[in-house]
Amino acid sequence: MIIVLAMALAGAIGGGVGTAQAEDGRPSSHDRQLLFYNHSYGVFDRETADAIEHSDYLREFANFQVRTTTGTGGQTWTGRYLMGRETYLELFGVGDVAGQDGTLGSAGLGLSTERAGDLATVTARLKDEGVADPIEFLQTRDFGDGVPVPWFDAILTTTEYDAFGAWAMEYRPEYFADPRGNTEPPSYPGDVGRERYLSDAYRTHLMRDVTSVRIAVTEGDLADTVPLLRAGGFTVRTLAGGGVVAKGGGTTIRLDVVPRANAGMQQVDMSLNRPVKDRHVERIGNSTLTVGPGSRAVWTFAHNGTP
Fold this sequence. Notes:
Blueprint: H1 3-10, E1 36-44, H2 46-53, H3 56-61, E2 63-70, E3 76-83, E4 88-93, E5 107-112, H4 118-128, E6 135-141, E7 149-156, E8 164-171, H5 173-177, H6 194-197, E9 207-217, H7 219-231, E10 235-238, E11 244-247, E12 252-257, E13 264-276, E14 280-284, E15 287-291, E16 294-301
C-alpha cells in the first residue's frame, strides 16, 4: 500500500490531474521491460471484505493471509492477501486504509523491477514521457519492534488522484537481508525480483499467479498512469471507450475509463499450478470466483459492492 504514504507526504489533496494523454495508443518505444506487475489492490464493501477474510475456500485455493502492516511514519493498513509465485492481490474493506485510500472503489497498482538499479532508469524514462518531476520516496516496514526496516524505493507520477494510483518500486537489499522478511536467496547478481520476495508456499495451493487485472478508473487517473506503464516497457493500446490495455512481463493490465462513482477493481484472472477437471463457482460476498475447468481462475467483483 503505497498511496497512503504519498498522501502523508503531500497533505490533504484530491482530484487527479493527468500528466499525459492516453489517446495516441502508441506502443512503448523503450527497448527493455523494466517494470512488471507486482500486485494490485481494491477496496470493497464490508460484506465482501469480511467474506473474503473468513472464506475457507480461499485458504485452500491460495497462500492466503490477513495481516496489518506498519509502514513509513507509522501508517498502518489491514489487508487480505492472495500470494502467488511472483504476483499477489491485496484486498481491503471500506476503512481498512486511512483517508481517501479507504473509500469504496479505491484501487491501486504496484509495478516492480527485477534487477537492482532499474528504478533509476524508469525515473529517467518518465521524464521522456512528460513527467517532469517524478516523486521518489522510501517505504519502510516495522515488524513490531519499533525499528523501521527499508522495504522498497518507489516512484509516483503525481500525488493527486481520484480513486486509483500506480507506482513503480524496487525492493531494498536491507529488506532481503532481514530474516523476518522470509525472502529467498538471489538467483543472479542484482536480483530484487518478485519471485525472490514471495515465498514458495503457493506450491501447496491452486493459485499460481495473476495473469490479468481489469480496473475501472477515472480519466485523470488513467492519464497519470499511462506514462509509468510506457516508461516500464509495457506496450499500451488505447481502447475505443477511452481506456487502455497494457501488455508485457506476463500480466495484462486493462484500465477502463468511468466516472468516480463507478471506479474500482472489476476482474482478476489467475493461472493455476495444475489443471482442474471441473468448474467450481464460489460466491464470496458480492464477488464470484470461478475456478476451472483447466488451468485458469476468474474472480469478478460487483460494481462497488452492488450485486
